Amino acid sequence: MPIFDISGDKLSAVEQRNFALEKDLQTLIDRTLDVVINWRIIVM
Asked: Residue 14's closest CA among 31, 29, 28, 1?
């Protein structure tokens, strides 16, 4: 299923990327977790 990015009133297809190892995908998600799940962690 294609995924699209919305910018203003235009759509553009998001480029597919394959990972050689599952660990590479896990590392990418770990580094950008705030974007993936849209959470903010507040430490008090």
From this structure: 1
